[in-house]
Amino acid sequence: MAFMKPELIQEFSSRSGFSRSHIEEALKRKPNILSSSLEKTNKPKFKIFRDLGFSTNDVADILAVDPWILSRSVDDRIAPSILDLKSVVGSIPDVVKLLKTSAWFLKCDLQKTMMPNIEYLRSCGISSSQIVSYVFSFPRFFLHKPESIKQFIKRADDLGFDRKSNMFLAAIRMFSSMSEENWELKVKLSRKLGFSEDDILSTFWKTPQVFAVSERKIKEVTDFLLTRKDVSISFIISQPSVLVCSLEHRRKPRLLVIDTLESKNLLRRKVSLTTIYKMSEQNFREKYVHPYLKELENASMAIVGA
Asked: Which residues form a coiled coil (predicted)?
């Protein structure tokens, strides 16, 4: 096989939309990229991307991050995968957006994993819009073997999860990230913390991702919340999302702010824990921090953003 000189390939790459930084990034990941056959390896890959509507800069961005794509077949892998992704997310610009963070899709046979998985998820009543959202947020979830996806769904069904619930896909994804043994450990811990069987199921149905949280974190958050006079186990059950957000970076700082303001009688009404935890960071700061910077001067520097 005849190989072009590295400097010629570098020149071609530059003319194809690769900046010097693109080339350097690709070389860090795949040093032998410049020894590839220009005619048989690189040109066909650049051409198929352009033919399918990718800009030269898009191609450069994607291949710089994952240059191993150049070793995949145009007809057997790259083109079919791009078309499969387009059929799922809806457009080439959306495919570009996805590949810039998950270029490894182009190295997988999506007809054996992603496409049958999506077809089966749709047959279970999960909407296309929710599936697309998860493709961007949790792309690797869709590359499980189809038989595994079916098993995750069975586990959710066995626990009485309503397939019409918007949380059904979240439950399936949660099961994909943990073994049955780990699930049982979380259930045992929940019992020790005071949750009844119905409480555990209710928490799971409302916020499946709670059970993806580590046992240590579940215990730490529950113990912390129950030290407060205004919190009981019923509050945690009704608002299980409080077990998900950060204890050190969200719960404790916000409670310290509110406790400080209440101790100085600066709030007209008592603020519920639900409000405290559900507010966005920007809204919380605008309502409870920025107007009281002077009063909070003795609070944590991290809280007042100084």
From this structure: none
Distance CA 111, CA 205 (A): 31
This prediction's pTM: 0.77
Reported as a single tens digit per residue, the pLDDT across 254-282 is 888 998 898 889 998 888 888 888 889 99
Q: How many angstroms separate the Cα of 40 from the Cα of each of 199, 227, 229?
A: 61, 67, 71
Task: State pLDDT tens for residues 115-145.
Answer: 999 999 999 999 999 999 999 999 999 999 9
Coarse DSSP helix, strand, coil percentages of the chain, rounded to the nearest 5 percent? 70, 0, 30
Quote the tokens at residue 284: 């919380």
pLDDT in tens, 36-69: 666 677 778 888 999 999 998 898 888 888 888 8
The DSSP code sequence of 196-265 is -HHHHHHHHHH-GGGGGS-HHHHHHHHHHHHTSTT--HHHHHH-GGGGTS-IIIIIHHHHHHHHHHHHTT
User: Are 16 and 54 within 8 A, CB to CB?
Assistant: no
